[in-house]
Amino acid sequence: MGRLNLTSFEISAIYGVLVIAVLSLIYAYSLFRNVMSEDKGTEAMIRIWTAIKEGADAYLSSQLKTILPFVGILVFALFGSAWIAPPTAAAIKMFGDNANIVIAFGRAGAFVLGAAFSLIVGQLGMRMAVQGNIRVAAASMRNFGDALRIAYRSGTVTGMLTDGLGLLGGTSIFIIFGAAAPDVLLGFGFGGTLLAMFMRVGGGIYTKAADVGADLVGKVEEGLEEDDPRNAAVIADQVGDNVGDCAGMAADIFESYEVTIVSTLILGIALMALTGNVYFIVFPLLVRAIGVISSIIGTFSVPVWERTVAKGNAWHSMEIAYEVSSVITISLSFLLAFVYIRLHDVNWWQPAAMVTMGVIFNVIVNRLTAYFTATDKPPVQEIAKSTKFGPATTILSGLAEGYESSTWSVLCIAASIMTSVLIYGHLGGAYIIYGVALIGIGWLTHAGNLVSMDSFGPISDNANGIGEMASMPDKARKIMTDLDAVGNTTKAITKGVAIGSAVIAAVSLFGSFITDIRLVQTEMVAAGQLAAEKLITGINVADPRVFIGLLIGGAIPILFGALLVKAVSRAANGMVSVVRKEFDVPGVREGTTMPDYRKAVAISTQAAQRELLPVGIIVVLVPILVGFTLKAEALGGFLAGVILSGQLLAVFMSNAGGAWDNAKKLVEEGHFGGKGSDAHKASIVGDTVGDPLKDTAGPALNPLIKVINLISLIIAPIVVRSQGISWQLAIVMVVLLAGIVWAIRQSKRPALYNI
User: Fold this and answer.
1) CA distance 291 to 326
2) pTM of whole model > 0.85?
3) Which DSSP helix (H) or strand (E) runs through 573?
4) Which residues contact 113 (CB under 8 A, 6 or more apart)?
5) pLDDT tens figures, 111-157
6) Residue 511's closest CA among 190, 167, 179, 259?
7) Under 8 Å CB-to-CB from 122, ≥6 apart: which residues?
């Protein structure tokens, strides 16, 4: 924090943020100890759980071996990106002649730290979910309240890890590097986002390959229940719930959490340089600390609300807890602004208002997603009704609802950004973008609550599966079924919130990109390296190069989604073949012999790993190719295209898939013919189409958007200083293009599964 002229209150407050981050981790550990002390149930339950645990552990080990070499290469690339670019004035002021080497090592180290934290959140979160599911199943034999408490607190461990590590990393880097922190924070954000993308992609392919294969053969062809142990894909399906919805989502929300910190600090330091007011940096960190406290209070109170107010309604108890956290955050944010910012700025209320807008719009998106995906709302009911007329009408109605939901969602995002225009518009563009970043801070202030609710879904789903396979008593099964139904809602809602946060974070990063370009160009004008009239003040879409960048950016999320859906399709084909062959084994169909679950687990694992490297190459190389070929302004157009296309496509995929899924559940509850009817089979087809959309391609677009924005921010200073295209640069660009083509071909190659 050197050379920032902080007051003693500000210094104490920032170190207090570190203390609260550690408090979050201590709370997570105490919940872990509490959950682990619970009973694991019968021998039959433990035998099934052991198979799930071994499959999940094997997947995570395999994934780690695949992505670590790629991460290792990028460490050197991050070091080089800071070494090549001239150091900023703030870095020179802090570190003098050593600025280049200090920032280069700092960025590379921060990249490793961000990647490690994202990996820890994903891996430990998934392992905690696996530990929690069997304990929830065992608790369901006692009462509903115990089962809910264990399920929610198992998820809260991951939620508080997200809060604690995200806040710890960003604040520590700021303390060490002070005004020069933005250059280093880019590495921290990129590391977390890249690992989140890998975990999203891998986990999404794994879970949906198993789910689609299990449903098509088990439900449609054999007429079995969801978790019938005779289905060879049932263990892979249970494992997939954890690696997709726990490891993937936890890493996803964690990187959104840290990226909003990164973008806010970058913009805050830029405004501090203009105004001399340090509160632009300190306030967001303190708000995040407030969010940790409110999340601890909210998550701890869920069982209390279930016993007192909600009276056995798990979803209502989570809603109350989230609302309590929201009220605490909004109230304390205004109090902080009144006590602290009022000393420096007459408009003390503006930052607190932006944080409040983030909290409010989070709730609005929450409700909007619930409307389009909940079983008691018209969209899902309309899809369920269409199942009476066959798979075609089921798919058409789901597509229509998904498209409509995407429209309202993007308008909601636009409205949230508009609030920053209304409040900060008279001060200029830099303030408006800073306001958007504060909306992102508010949006994910309760990341702990969000991750808790999301992890609750697969934990309850797994518990229900264990209950089915272990033939547990009807009373326990009823409790687990009720929790599972709530979990489906919480998963759908947190996906919508995660997508919204990704777009808000990307918009603030986009603002950071423009700010960074302007700073570099201003230095070049002062040094006589650039004419003043060539200073970029905005993105001119009428420029053909910018429009080309916009078109390419719009195409990337569509290509990305296509590759992932194809990957799921190929893996599902292999899964269907294995499950069918296992049913041909004497005794499997009759239930006297158990199928070989390991073959299905192996297919999902191999399918997930084979896509990671090609996808990583595409995402990393495309913005570099666009930036150095079409230059900085076109790169800005490219980012705008990625954000818009990615937002629309992600919401469409997530909500359409969620609606199809819940329409199937509505039919299975006895509506429109119930289980075994033609309507049920049509609903399964719709759900099968929606599965890779809502759990693979759609959610993976969140980190994609931010990875591309962060890479563009990292290369922006180098791109701006790159004048023309030399023959050496042309050769490098051709090599990068060849690498992208190779990656696409690798992703589309036929699958040869070693089973």
Assistant:
1) 9
2) yes
3) helix 544-583
4) 169, 173, 188, 191
5) 999 989 988 888 888 888 888 889 998 988 888 888 888 888 888 89
6) 259
7) 195, 196, 199, 246, 247, 248, 250, 251, 254
Q: Residue 255: what pLDDT? A: 78
DSSP 746: H
Give the confidence band of 266 by pLDDT, cuts at 50, 70, 90. confident
Residue entry with tokens 């109170």: 301
Reference 440, options 396, 501, 510, 509; nearest CA is 501
Q: Which of 222-236, 393-407, 726-740 bottoms out in mean pLDDT, i.e. has the lowest?
A: 222-236
Q: Which residue has the tokens 């799921």?
A: 568
DSSP state of 310: S
Q: Which SS3 state, helix, strand or coil, does residue 699 take? A: helix
CA neighbor of 740 nearest in space, from 639, 609, 617: 617
Quote the radius of gyration of the chain (alpha carbons, Å).
Answer: 25
By CB atoms closer than 10 A (0-12, 13-18, 19+), residue 410 is middle
Q: Can you give the pLDDT at residue 1? A: 56
> Cα separation of 336 and 98, whole Å?
38
Token pair for residue 241?
Answer: 């719930």
Beta strands in 306-388 (DSSP E): none
Name residue, tokens 């919130």. 497
Taking 90 as the threshold, does the pLDDT of residue 555 lie above it? yes
pLDDT at 741: 92
Cβ-count burial of 274 within 10 angstroms (0-12 exposed, 13-18 middle, 19+ buried)? exposed
Please say whether the beta carbons of 101 and 86 come within 8 A: no
Contacts of 50 (CB under 8 A, 6+ apart): none
- What's the farthest any 2 CA atoms get from each other in the chain? 83
Return the sign of the alpha-carbon dihedral for residues 516, 522, 524, 526: negative
Please give the full DSSP string across 647-699, using - where no structure is assigned: HHHHHHHHHHHHHHHHHHHHHHTTGGG-TTSHHHHHHHHHHHHHHHIIIIIHH
Structure tokens at 494: 């947190």
What is the average per-residue pLDDT within 717-729? 82
